[in-house]
Specification:
Rossmann fold; Arc Repressor Mutant, subunit A; 2 domains; six-stranded parallel β-sheet; 6 strands; globular
């Protein structure tokens, strides 16, 4: 039985990086390059017309739609208008504050342009499955130069229920939220903590009790 290919759009304003990303995705038989664009405006236009057919967007951080905006503006637009499209940020930025802003905005897959193409492929498949992925350079930047991330009340609650063995669907029913919201909260929380799954979470809980910011929004 054939499996539908993951349809990926690549957006980067640097020709070399754009072509490198295209080749990395095209080399994986599980994925198909649906389109390649060079800035934020054509990306939004493409998604506006064909968004239902796109699974993953691989996007450079420094691609504002307008000159007065920073890279986060496009990320916020993508998350708000096209929540069903998974996002991978491919960037040369290693500033911890910027990376934390990405994670807080719901970006759970971040790949450094210094890491190899296999990491981009891994991130794209993880994003499609709703899992977080940080390439080695990004993971180091977040772990070594920033204090441990603090979870919001909602993220901590979802992780606690998920760690107890509840499914995403069961948690959504229990909390009265959409399954997509629960999946995003779980993935963001795991990414903040640098964890990959239940086994990692169990080890983390054993080594140090997870804390969350009571003043943070759910």
């Amino acid at each position: 039985m054939s499996t539908k290919a993951i349809r990926v759009v690549i957006a980067d304003d640097h020709p070399v990086a754009r072509e490198g990303a295209r080749m990395a995705i095209a080399d994986d038989m599980r994925m198909q390059v649906a389109a390649v664009v060079d800035s934020g405006a054509p990306l939004l236009a493409l998604l506006g017309e064909h968004g239902d057919d796109i699974d993953v967007v691989v996007c450079d951080y420094a691609m504002p739609v307008h000159d007065s905006e920073d890279g986060m503006a496009l990320i916020h637009v993508l998350r708000e208008r096209y929540p069903h499209v998974s996002l991978v940020v491919l960037t040369s930025i290693e500033d911890t504050a910027v990376l934390r802003d990405m994670v807080r905005a719901g970006v759970i897959c971040i790949v450094s342009k210094r890491d190899g193409p296999r990491h981009l492929r891994t991130a794209a498949t993880a994003a499609k499955d709703g899992r977080g992925y940080l390439s080695p350079v990004m993971k180091t930047a977040l772990e070594l130069y920033d204090p441990p991330a603090r979870l919001s009340r909602g993220e901590a609650q979802v992780l606690e229920l998920w760690a107890s063995g509840m499914s995403i669907k069961a948690i959504a029913t229990h909390l009265g939220k959409a399954t997509s919201t629960i999946s995003t909260q779980k993935a963001v929380a795991l990414t903040k903590l640098g964890l990959g799954g239940r086994a990692d979470l169990a080890r983390y809980a054993w080594e140090s009790r997870a804390t969350h910011d009571d003043s943070a929004p759910p």
